[in-house]
Amino acid sequence: MTPSASSAEVQTAQLLLERLGVSLEDLTSGQSKRAVPTFAEYVPVVYAAMPPGVTRENYKCYWKKVVAAWPDRRLDEPTITEFKQLIGTLQAQRAVRRTDRGGYALAQVAVNALRCLYRHAVDDKLISPADNPAIALVKPKRRSSSRGAIPTDRLAEINRVAAEYGDEPELTTLILRMCTETACRRGGILALRKQDLDPDQCLVRLREKGDTERWQPVSPTLMRALLDHHASRAHLRSGKSRLAGNGRPISRNADERLFRYKNGAPITATRFVIMWRQIGEQLPWVKQQGITCHWLRHTTLRWVERNFGHAVAKAYAGHADNHSDGATSIYTRATREEVAYALSALTGEPHPVAPQVATAYTEELSR
Questions:
Q1: How many separate domains does the chain show?
Q2: Which of 2, 14, 116, 179 has the smallest C-beta neighbourhood within 10 Å, fewest atoms?
Q3: Do residues 190 and 257 lie in contact, with contact meaning Cβ atoms separated by under 8 Å?
């Protein structure tokens, strides 16, 4: 039982408050201003504070589910057990796709979204670090990827089918070549704009996850194809409404995309789903294994690593240096010229960024 304060202690406290010019009303009003908001009140605040990008949109999906479940609950009310139950419910209600792996990725993103939300709450001093329930949430261990490199003969099958079937064979072929040459992620293709092309040096600026950005060499053939694609389709959008085929408005960022449909509308992530579904209709093994563009990234990077070493493969992939690689990796990182050399070996075309190396390789092939 907590002992009550003596009259002397009370008088001392009152005297101290008087000298500080603080009243009891000031103390109580200060506490009322720090009232903990509800999820419905605070989620929009955090969403607006985050920079636009894939991460914010991914987190938004899970924040909306939390708001739907507990709209009027304050941030300091749910327990760790309740959060675990909510994540388990989301896993059970997930849409099971052909690449489903038990909802482990869903749980990982959900935990990251909750940690982000509560990190902002701690920074805003709405809750104390000790009262942050998201810290105790454990993310499921990442499972080893089932994706891998595609054998050469099967990759040739994919490219053949892409050029002969589907509603957009020209677009599909260009996307596949872009993935194969640059080992880029899907986000890199969706973010590519006309101003990201450097025709003189045959470089494209790839902007991918984690706000990373790099200039990646491409072959002269691919550069010409990208320029021709933009020239033949971008002008078809002029004067048209900023609405997509589904009736939703096209954002400014999306309207700048280089890759477009026949009608000039910019592609979306749905294009990749349709593209691989059409290829899978002709090649059953593609559907059975869940082949996607990321398999092409595996294919190219494994070839580069086997032929040019880890440093070049790391630069080719656009992976950032980190402490786990050791300090030596800072000094042994590959140059853009070495990446261009590897690309020249892959495509058999000289590259302007590494002309001497590419020419030497071409002469060696001709012997």
A1: 2
A2: 2
A3: yes
Phi then psi for residue 365, to 5 deg, are -65, -35
Instruction: Give the global pTM.
Output: 0.69
Within 39-142, where are the H helices?
39-49, 54-69, 80-92, 104-123
- Our measurement of the distance from residue 30's CA atom to the centroid of its chain's CA atoms, rounded to an integer in Å, reads 41
Distance (Å, whole) CA 269 – CA 311: 31
Residue 25, domain member (yes or no): no
Q: CB neighbours of 177 closer than 8 A, spacing ≥ 6? A: 222, 225
Q: Give a yes or no: residue 145 inside a domain.
A: no
Tokens of 212: 């990373």
What distance lies between CA 279 and its chain's CA centroid? Answer: 25
Residue labelled with tokens 């000031």: 26
Residue finishing a domain among 136, 168, 198:
136
Which residues, in sequence order, are CB contacts of 9 under 8 Å at separation 6+?
none
Residue-wise pLDDT tens digits, 290-331: 899 999 999 999 999 999 999 999 999 988 766 556 566 667
For 29-60, the pLDDT digits (tens) are 554 446 889 999 999 999 999 988 778 888 99
